[in-house]
Each structure stands twice: as C-alpha cells, then as structure tokens.
Amino acid sequence: MRHRRRRSWTTLALVTVLLAGTGLSGCSGDEPTGEVTILASWTGAERAAFDAVLRGFEAETGIHVDYQGHRDVSQVLQAGIERGRPPDVAVLPRLNDVQRYVNEDQLRPLDEIVEGDAGAAAQVIRLARKTEPVGPQRAYAVAVATHLKSIFWYEPSALSAVGPRQPPATWAELVTRSRGVTAGGRVPWCLGMSSPPVSGWPGTDWIEDILLHQSGQAAYERWTRGELSWRTGPVRDAWVAWGDLLGVSSSPGTARASLFTTWADAGSGLLTAPPGCYLDHQASFVLRTYRDAMPDGGGPVDFFPTPPVGPSETSSLQEVSDDVAALFRDTGPARELMAYLASEPAQRIWRESSDELFFSRRAQSDDYADPVVARVARRLGTGTLCRDGSDLLPTAVATAFERAVLVYLQDPGRLDALLAELDSVRRSVPPAEYMDLGCEPAAPPTN
Asked: What is the dihedral of CA 236, 242, 244, 247, to 10 degrees?
C-alpha cells in the first residue's frame, strides 16, 4: 500500500479558510478550532470505518465532527432544510438529489476546494442549475466512495461442481448455465429484492446493467435523461432479457420468494453448505456480506464481469454507483472536511479501517492485498464508467421503477402495463429534474 503524507488537501484547505475569513489551525495539538456536522446513512461496520476517517480529520485539524447517522437521509435532510438548519455536509443516498438541491440553490459550490487536488478530478461532479435563473456548470459534489455493479459473484468450487470449471464468458453461456442449474433441481440465483425502507433496487440494478450491455452507452444515456420510452426498444428488451434469464414465467418460485428475501440474506446462500444458490448479481459492497457469512471472516468468492448481452461489444462498459458528499453550509470547518474527504490520505484510512472493503475512484489496485478485491479496484480504473441509472433518475421515476420490479416478479404477465405506467411517470416529470451526466472514461487514479 502507498502511504503518502498529506500535503495537497491541507494546503488547499488553508487557502479556502483564509478566503472564508476564518482562521483554522491544521495542527493536531491545538485546541479545537471549530465544529462541523455531517449527515450520512452508515451504521455498524461501515459507520466504524467512517469514524476512523473522521478521527483522522479531527486529529489533523482540531475541528470536532458531529456525525449524524440516519437510515433515511433524504427525509432528515429535507426536514433540516425546511427548518433552516441543514447539516454542514451530507452524504446523499441518490445522485439525483444533488441536481434537485442545485436547482433549489441549497448547495454551495466546491470549485475552490477541489481544484488544487489533481487526484480528486475523477471524483468531482459538475452540474448546472436547470431552473430559472439557469446557472453555470460548477463542482457541487464529490464521490467519496464508489461501488462496482457490473459483476456476477460465485464460489468457484460450487459453480464448477454444476457445470464447466470456467465461469460464463458470454450472455448465452450465462443463460445456459442458469438453466442447467435449474434443471438439476437447484437454485441458480441468489435473488433478494427486500431492502427496507427502499425495496426493489436490486432488481433495477439488474435491468440497468442489462440495458447498458445489450444496447450500449448511447441508449443508456438517453434513458437516464428521460428521452427513451420504456415500452419499446432497448428498455423493454432489458426487462425481457432479465425475465428470460431468471425464468420468471417458467419457474416463478424463486422470483416470488425474492420479494421477501433481503439482498444480504440471498447473497449469503452463495457460501452455505450445500449452496443455497450459485450466482449473485450484486455490487462490490456485498463483499462484506460474504466475509460475515464465513466463520474465518473470508470466503473463496470470485467474480466475472457482465458480458455483452447483444451483438455489440459492450464489455468495456461498467455500471457504478457513488456515495457523494455535498456542502450545504459554507463554513471554514465544512470546507476543510470536504477537502479532506476527497483526499488520498482520508481514503487510505477508510480503506484500511474497512478491511479493504472501501473503493474510490482514486484508489489503485496495488493498494489492496486481497487479489479479488484488487481486481475490483482495477476495473474501476479501466473502461467506461456509467453511473447507476436509478440514482440519475428523478425520485418519482426511480420510485415507480422500484415498485414495477416488485410487481413484475410477482406477475410477469403485467410487464407491458407496468412499462406504460413508467412511461406516464416519465412524461409527467419536468426536464429540469433529469440529470445530464453521461458515462465517463475511467481515469487512471492519481494519488
């Protein structure tokens, strides 16, 4: 692992503090020089890892951090805004929330905070206010953590026991393997849609990933901008491909059972004896679930990338999701914290305190000792990264999408009616609520 002393963020934070007219010391031996509040949803082991990052910030700056953890960040944040008391910084659960708050003039720009840190460039999210008065494009959020979604997990010895030794390399092979496991009286997919308070998103991940690898980048971007109908063409094709792979019509039992199974419980079936399932389509954060499911804290899991679904070569495209931090109150301590969260030293602490289960856009694969984890990091630095479609969609559309997934798995015959409803919601949402963020080439990390 690389261990570099923090230089760039400290210098930059000092500059921004001087510009703000507030004198803040960066020496850990000084008395506390301020306080900053941050709102996020992390609990348990994730909260503990993030706490280590905040302790590093406090030791370096003398600024006290008040962490406010809530599962429903959006509701708590909105209540704070309405009372005129938002947190200084918030880690938003959905990227589209950033656009909404920019439109409402609730966020403070970050240009001066991040421009001095070259390694942060890949993490910066630049948007323009899309309501009157329309504003210039500026930095309004930083992706402090990134999760790889275009991957399938498996346990090598279990999967090779029910088919070829090598994992599927094409979509046709994936379909064949899935049907072969089913024909043998086993359950191929670790399928769980329950995730209170927002169930259904594991299914939207599936459809987004298939859409991306079946119809390509241009179609995916048009869909996230609200320009593509749900009822015909690429979007409907993705639903059909998903249903065909899962066998929702011919073998509906697993699909319906998934409505009452959490994604974490479903994924644990990958490592039971005998296996409860053989393949799991889930983001890289599921690694913690796998480790928790093994008595020794680790598991012999591996992954393969989502293969092209159609004739086009789409293997370089990868769906990712980001945890993004944004600035709601423009104070010196808050600016220091934003600069720190984007910095390499902070993300190194996060990586180490999470047992290597933290990924960011600036981490390098040789930062990780575990070879499987290092491969995840390597993929985040290659190809083209396309952000999670549901995170980009306006809240009303994303909510309807999640509900439609649940209804479809219970009654696949309603697909066309569900897509018509989604189209109706799409048309009812003003264009200003959609985001213009497209896919981006992965930038080789610069520490």
From this structure: -130
Which stretches within 382-414 are classed as H helix?
389-392, 395-410
Q: In terms of Cα–Cα distance, which of 231, 210, 232 is closest to 423?
A: 231
Contact in structure between 144 and 123 (CB atoms under 8 Å)? yes
- Tokens in use for 178? 């899935």
Per-residue buried b or exposed e for 88-117, using 16+ beta carbons within 10 Å of the residue's own CB: bbbbbbbbbbbbbbbbeebbbbbeebbeeb
d(CA 56, CA 349): 8
- Report DSSP letters for 245-297, one per residue: HHTTTTSHHHHHHGGGSBHHHHHHGGGSSS-S-SBEE--GGGHHHHHHHSTTS
Percent helix, percent strand, percent coil in the chain, to nearest 5:
50, 15, 35
Higher-scoring residue by pLDDT: 428, 196? 428
Does 14 share its domain with 81? Answer: yes
Q: Which residue has the tokens 């319906």?
A: 256
Task: Based on the fold, state whether residues 194 and 232 are members of the same structural domain.
Answer: yes
- Is 434 contained in some domain? yes
Which pLDDT band, with edges at 50, 70 and 90, does 115 fall under? confident
Largest CA distance in the chain: 70
Q: Where does the pLDDT of residue 296 fall: very low under 50, low under 70, confident under 90, or very high at 90 and above?
A: low
Domain extent for 33: 8-147+321-383
C-alpha 158, offset from chain centre: 28
CATH code of residue 227: 3.40.190.10
List, in sequence order, every residue forming a beta bridge with 152; answer none if it has no partner.
281, 304
Among 353, 383, 413, residue at a domain's last position: 383
For residues 116 and 238, membership in a common domain is answered with: no
Judge if 198 and 155 occupy the same domain: yes
Tokens of 268: 């644990």
pLDDT per residue as tens digits for the range 49-58: 999 999 999 9
Task: Using a cut of 0.70, tell me whether the model's pTM lies above it.
Answer: yes
